[in-house]
Amino acid sequence: MGFPTMHAYRTHTCGALRATDAGSTARLSGWVHSKRDHGGLLFVDLRDHYGITQIVFAAGSAPFETIDKLRPESVITVTGSVVVRQDGTVNPRLPTGEIELRAATLAVQSAAEVLPLQVAGEEKYPDELRLKYRFIDLRREKMHRNIMLRAGVIASIRRRMIESGFTEFQTPILTASSPEGARDFLVPARNHPGKFYALPQAPQQFKQLAMVAGFDRYFQIAPCFRDEASRADRSPGEFYQLDFEMSYVTQEDVFNTIEPVIAGVFEEFANGRAVTKPPFVRIPYDTSMLKYGSDKPDLRNPIEITDVTEHFAGSGFGLFAKIAASGGIIRAVPAPGTASNPRSFFDKLNEWARSEGQGGLGYIQYEADGPKGPIARNLEADRAEAIRVAAGAKPGDSIFFVAGKKDEAPKFSGLVRTKLGNELGLISQGEFRFCWITDFPMYELNEETKQIDFSHNPFSMPQGEMEALLTQDPLTIKAYQYDIVCNGIELSSGAIRNHRPDIMVKAFEIAGYTQADVESRFGGMLNAFRYGAPPHGGSAPGIDRIVMLLADEPNIREVILFPLNQQGEDLMMGAPAEVPPARLKELSLALALPPKVKKD
Length: 600
Hints:
Layout: E1 25-37, E2 41-48, E3 51-58, H1 64-69, E4 75-84, E5 99-110, H2 127-132, H3 134-137, H4 141-163, E6 167-168, E7 186-188, E8 196-198, H5 204-212, E9 217-226, E10 237-247, H6 251-269, E11 274-275, E12 281-284, H7 285-291, E13 306-307, H8 309-312, H9 318-325, E14 329-335, H10 343-355, E15 362-367, E16 370-372, H11 374-377, H12 381-391, E17 398-404, H13 409-423, E18 431-432, E19 434-438, E20 443-445, E21 452-454, H14 465-471, E22 481-486, E23 489-496, H15 501-510, H16 515-529, E24 536-539, H17 543-551, H18 581-586
Parallel strand pairs: 3-5, 6-9, 11-18, 12-19
Antiparallel strand pairs: 1-2, 1-4, 2-3, 4-5, 7-8, 9-10, 10-24, 13-14, 14-17, 15-16, 15-17, 19-22, 20-21, 22-23, 23-24
């Protein structure tokens, strides 16, 4: 049977046919998703990018023998009649579920071999297998949906940025090394023996130079390359960010411009989940470290931490009194409704704290007849009550305590807050809670070298500008630096930039750089600033992390088309790979490989 006027492969996609198409002839192409033999009839779910259509092959028909022998994931073209399914056989889960295609002809475009992993079903497979056969893994419904979500998010961001007056530019991929805080990927320059390009860790200097060049509002869906370790929310090797920069803006201008973009994208793809409405709450860094023990607070967790050092200073609880006297701090982390919990609850958390490298986790149970527990037995009653009031705890609650050095105790108290939020089911689901973390310290003390280092972006404007650099203790200087945080995930870092050469040289001098160092490392940007630079600022929300949150995936690999594994390897394409000696010679390179470890 011929259909000469039809397209060679399809008249419709596998997601297009409806009951209104009944009686017509259609041609579909796709993958054999699954087969079901119902005695005399063979039912095939045919899948393409757009959906699934049920195909019926009758025993004895010309194509039956062929389809019966084909393995799943073979690619076929089927032509036949569209018919309405009989009552009781309609599949309401499929948009095409009211019809089926009665096969008249079949062409096999590509027969599949035995599959290393199944596409149909929800079976779990090892990550290494999935990455090696990523092209098959991506056929699975959830993965396909995640990648299409990513494409939709990027398209939405691009549209919203253009509507907000931004212009998209592309910055160089082959560039010079940059002080972004991670290792560069280096590319040997064949025509310049002994010299290397660096892949950009971020388009930081270029986007600032675009402002100096007078373009006012820049953005880019920018690829960034960092030679750093993998973790759940960070892809090794490369990642993408919404990079943007604006001229003649204050910090609040940046916030007010980008908030509707971010909130709008999340609302568009939230599927009913609640999204914080602009303006997002602004939380100073010092406040965030005190109340949440983190500069990436999850505001879905209602627990707030309190400093109770003063209440233990000189108290009868000797351990904490000693820590307070030596300059340490004590933080209180409330645990609502746990005062009457069994001892095992407290012992379990104590063991967890020890597994985290801590000495333990002290606590007070505020039962109806008074405070209980090891700490309460050695603490004055009025102090125990003052701690309860300070921490906002009620009778029936418990309070856990974290004590230690000023630079260590806040972070662990944040881990305790998160642990309790999860253990007690306090973290609200189905919402995206945004905030800005502001007023980051400009500098920090390197514990190993005891030298002053930049704590964030070295190109940020210090609050107070030159006067602050000249008159303040560097460790007290704040910067116009800010992060967007959502549900405990940092989406971006940003800043109002230091556009003054004199302030930049002084800022780097405090961090131990000479003017010659600054000129040699950042001469391009510094020189540009000498010819008239506008005040400017921006940020760079991470595309991968945005999609990860919207897809509700715990690992960033699940929203990237072809990711590397945790060791930075592409198992599918075999990268990184050795290159022939002739190629190394052409690049003026010689290898100095580490000695191989002998195996027993």
